[in-house]
Amino acid sequence: MHLADLDLNQSYTYADYYSWDFPQRVELIYGKAFIKDPVTYTVHQRMSMNLAMPIYAYLKGSKSAIYTAPFDVRLPHGPSRADIDIIHVVQPDLCVICDPNNLDERGGIGVPDIIVEILIPLNNVVELNDKFDLYEEAGVKEYWIVSPQDNTFLVNTLVNGKYVTGRPLVSGILTSSILPEFLLDLSKLFADNI
Question: What's the order of all strands across the beta sheet hosting 103-104?
Fold first, then answer.
């Protein structure tokens, strides 16, 4: 199958997804295929690295790990982890997985503890709406949204099955309930953006 043959109105599963060999990245959200922007933006890459490196250093030596895109995360919709039953496959910019049982040779299989998405103009609707709902429903404990355009950092924390969204951070020190004692100076994170 070629990317041009992909019917964006049809529902797919991870079994379908795994059989595809497209040059462009694709995600499945509620079984619907979303084609990722093929362009690699410099500011996006820089922001990803500025976040990944301190988290990696913090997690080094623990059972937890950080993964960067492209890295498939399969979010089971129910108790089954069978390929045919999985209708959510995302490639977050970054994700932290604390439970090694949520990994296999093909990537993440289960709910990451933290997912980070970095906004670019073409993905804002998917990241702020579709993925917000999906990650909340799946039980992702923290969903971080970073906007290099605005130099803002938004932390959504799962409380009783719903996200509580903090105020947009533009400076100060970021902390996380998932990563005790982890501190991220947002002025350093956004310094390359100025």
Answer: 32-35, 26-29, 89-90, 73-74, 107-109, 103-104
| Cα–Cα dist 33/59, whole Å | 33
pLDDT digits (tens, 9 = 90+) for 97-125: 999 999 999 999 999 999 999 998 766 76
- Topology, domain 39-191: tt1808, chain A (3.90.1570)
pTM flag (> 0.90):
yes
**How far apart are alpha carbons 28 and 30 in whole angstroms?**
6
The two three-digit tokens of residue 141, written as one number:
């404990």
What is d(CA 17, CA 88) in angstroms, rounded to the nearest whole number? 10
Strands (E), the chain: 26-29, 32-35, 65-68, 73-74, 89-90, 94-97, 103-104, 107-109, 114-118, 142-147, 152-159, 162-165, 173-174, 184-185
Helix (H, G, I), strand (E, B) or coil at 16: helix
Count the neighbouring beta carbons within 10 Å of the beta carbon of residue 126.
19
